[in-house]
Amino acid sequence: MKLIYLAALVGTAIVTGLSAQTANEVIIDRVQQPGAPTAPDAATTANSKDEKGDLDGGTQRLAEARKLPFKLTVAYDLQAFFTSNVFLQPSDPVEALVVANTLQTSAAFNGIVIGQGLLTPSVGVAYQRYHHALGTGDEDRQNLDFDAFTLPLALRLRYGNNWEFGLGVTGTAVYSHEPSYNLTYKAITTSLSARKLISISHSQVLSFGTGVNFVITDSEVPAAPFDFRSDRNDKIDTYIDAAYYYFKDRWVFSPYARYTHSDYSHYEEAGFTPQDRRDQTLSLGVSVSYNITPWATARAFTSADWRDSLGDSLNDYGYESASAGLGLSLNFSF
Q1: N or C: which end of the chain has fewer CB within 10 A?
Q2: What's the domain range around 218?
Q3: CATH number of the domain within which 142 lies
């Protein structure tokens, strides 16, 4: 079986149910939404097969030594998806079509052998633009479009029998498009993760993961008679997830499930004293990808999210949302 590039970017929207919430607050919540489990890359997938090796390895050739001290990857992703609840409100959901463009470049440096493990440092930069076609005619719901810039630094340790551990620090800056192009949100996220890949057969792989994210934020303060904390969105996310990958020629079929518990450090509403905000989110989804060429992948995906509020905050942040869409990824490595 030929190695297949896996791409499974599932995009949905997050917005709280505050009736007086500004569009900037909506954007901030959307940016912080937990995503789908990361798919294993081609090298990891190859290593997870049994010891008999790949029975359909295709044309083989001698490996050429890389001239650069790192592997450079440039990727572009376009996705368009329909969401049933773009504001993720407890009631009166608003439908929307969302178009997201992502341009990313990353450099993975040569690995360092540590015992039975391989430690790989990497650095990257990414730009995303989100456009929302709401079609509601409501002026206060038209300024959701935003750009996001991220700078991820990561250390990945592959160890033993298909274990993978990660330590990362990611800087994020979000600029809203309306009423003017302004910096709405900044964050530093430190993440710790562990993942285990289990090979069922040549064409089937299971993935189980867990992790914790520490998010330190600086948000734009709304123009209001009350004082807001600029760090009111600081939180700790703890998650577990599971995914199944089935390979068939150029096709990849992948359902996943993810549970996230979010604990806000000092959330506040309308300038009141800090509120006890704790959320739990269950996400289920599936994607079907087709490897058009070694560097181009098309996919269809759908997902559903359920969130419950566990704390004693003034508002209910629970919601139900579903989305479905199409995507195209281009990936070039040097």
Answers
A1: C
A2: 23-56+67-333
A3: 2.40.160.40
Q: Is residue 18 part of a domain?
A: no
| 154-211: pLDDT as tens digits | 999 999 889 999 999 999 999 998 878 889 999 999 999 999 999 999 999 999 999 9
Query: How many Å separate Cα 187 from the centre of its chain?
Result: 15
Tokens describing residue 304: 């559903």
Q: Is residue 188 in some structural domain?
A: yes
Q: Is residue 4 part of a domain?
A: no
Using alpha carbons, list the distances in angstroms from residue 148 to 43, 59, 172, 231: 29, 41, 7, 18
Within 8 A by CB and 6+ apart from 22, the residues are 222
Phi-psi region of 157 (alpha: psi -120 to 50; beta: other; left: phi over 0): beta
Are the C-beta atoms of residues 322 and 302 closer than 8 Å to each other?
yes
Model confidence pLDDT, tens digit, residues 132-158: 886 555 544 557 899 999 999 999 999
Q: What is the pTM of this model?
A: 0.82
Beta bridge partners of 54: none
Number of domains within the chain: 1
**10 three-state secondary structure:** coil
How many whole angstroms separate alpha carbon 184 and alpha carbon 186?
7
**Integer CA distances (angstroms), 136 to 30, 68, 187, 216, 226, in order:** 19, 51, 31, 34, 30
Residue 133 and residue 13: Cα distance in Å, rounded? 13
Q: 10 Å Cβ neighbour count for 41?
A: 12
